[in-house]
C-alpha cells in the first residue's frame, strides 16, 4: 500500500490518502446523508473499512467514483490514521459511471436485524461490554441492550427468528418471558395486525400489573414477618 507522497497515482494500486484532498465526482445518489451520527462515529473510531474507488482527474488528483459518503464523513470527522484507503480505477465512461453507481446503491442490502443481534451476542461472549459494543460498532445503546436482553432468552430469540420481529419488539417478549399469561397476551396482540398497534399500551398495563403484584407480595411478606 502506498501513501500520498507518490508523485503519480497508478491504476490498480491502493493508496492511503488524506480524505480532505479527495474530490467528490458526480453521483446518482444526491443525498449521501453525511450527518448520520452512528456512521460518523464509526468512521471516527474505526476509520473507513471499505475501500474507496477513485480515478485520476486531469489535474492529477483523485476524484471519488464509489464511496462519496465515506469520503465526505472521513473529511469531516477524521479517522484514527488521518487517511482513508483508496483504490485507483480507470476513469469511467459517463454511462458506465451512472450504471455502476445506481447498481451499487439499488442492490445494497442492509444487515438483517438478527445479524446485528448475533454480532452483539458474539462480542458480549468475547467479554466486550455493552458500552464498548455501542461505542466501537457505533450502535445506539438501546439497540445493544435490546440485543443482549433477547439473546439471554432462547425462547425469545427463536420467536424473533420465526416471526421477523425487530429487536425492540423481541425485547418486549424477553421482558415477560417468565410470565406465560403475559406472553399469551402479547402473542395474541402480535398475531392480530390491528391489535399490534396497541402493544405499547398492553406492555404498560402488564408492567403496572407486575408492579402491583410485587408490591402486594412485599406487603404480605412484611405482615407475615
Distance separating the two termini: 74 Å
Rg, Cα atoms, Å: 25 Å
Provide the β-strand percentage band.
5-15%
State the major sheet.
6 strands, mixed
Poorly predicted regions are: none
What share of residues is helical? 40-55%
- Secondary-structure-derived class: alpha/beta
- By oligomeric state, this entry counts as single chain
User: What's the average pLDDT?
Assistant: 85
Please report the total strand number as a whole number: 6
Widest sheet, order of strands: 1-2-6-4-5-3
Backbone shape? elongated
Task: Provide the succession of SSEs.
Answer: EEEHEEHEHHHHHHHH
Number of helical regions: 10
Overview features:
225 residues; 10 helices; 6-stranded mixed sheet; 6 strands; single chain; 54% helix; alpha/beta
How would you describe the overall organization of this protein?
With 225 residues, the chain is an alpha/beta fold. Helix content is 54%, strand content 10%. The protein contains ten helices and six strands. The protein has a six-stranded mixed sheet with strand order 1-2-6-4-5-3, sandwiched between helices. α4 crosses α6 and α6 crosses α8. The relative contact order is 0.09.
Fold blueprint:
Layout: E1 2-3, E2 14-17, E3 23-24, H1 37-46, E4 52-56, E5 62-66, H2 68-77, E6 84-88, H3 94-106, H4 113-125, H5 130-137, H6 141-151, H7 154-163, H8 167-175, H9 180-191, H10 199-224
Parallel strand pairs: 1-2, 3-5, 4-6
Antiparallel strand pairs: 2-6, 4-5
Entry summary:
The chain is of the alpha/beta class and 225 residues long. The chain is 54% helix and 10% strand. The longest helix has 26 residues, at 199-224.
Amino acid at each position: 500500500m502506498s501513501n500520498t507522497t507518490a508523485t503519480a497515482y497508478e491504476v490498480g494500486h491502493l493508496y492511503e490518502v488524506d480524505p480532505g484532498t479527495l474530490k467528490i465526482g458526480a453521483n446518482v445518489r444526491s443525498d449521501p446523508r453525511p450527518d448520520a451520527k452512528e456512521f460518523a462515529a464509526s468512521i471516527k473510531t474505526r476509520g473507513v473499512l471499505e475501500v474507496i474507488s477513485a480515478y485520476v482527474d486531469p489535474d492529477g488528483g483523485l476524484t471519488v467514483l464509489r464511496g462519496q459518503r465515506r469520503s465526505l464523513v472521513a473529511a469531516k470527522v477524521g479517522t484514527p490514521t488521518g487517511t482513508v484507503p483508496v483504490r485507483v480505477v480507470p476513469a469511467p465512461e459517463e454511462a458506465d459511471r451512472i450504471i455502476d453507481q445506481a447498481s451499487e446503491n439499488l442492490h445494497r442490502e442492509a444487515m438483517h436485524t438478527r445479524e446485528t443481534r448475533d454480532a452483539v451476542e458474539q462480542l458480549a461472549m468475547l467479554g466486550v461490554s455493552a458500552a464498548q459494543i455501542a461505542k466501537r460498532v457505533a450502535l445506539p445503546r438501546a439497540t445493544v441492550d435490546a440485543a443482549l436482553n433477547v439473546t439471554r432468552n432462547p425462547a425469545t430469540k427463536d420467536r424473533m427468528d420465526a416471526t421477523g420481529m425487530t429487536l425492540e419488539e423481541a425485547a418486549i417478549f424477553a421482558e415477560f418471558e417468565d410470565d406465560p399469561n403475559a406472553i399469551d397476551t402479547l402473542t395474541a396482540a402480535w398475531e392480530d395486525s390491528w391489535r399490534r398497534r396497541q402493544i405499547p399500551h398492553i406492555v404498560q398495563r402488564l408492567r403496572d400489573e407486575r408492579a402491583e403484584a410485587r408490591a402486594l407480595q412485599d406487603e404480605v411478606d412484611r405482615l407475615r414477618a
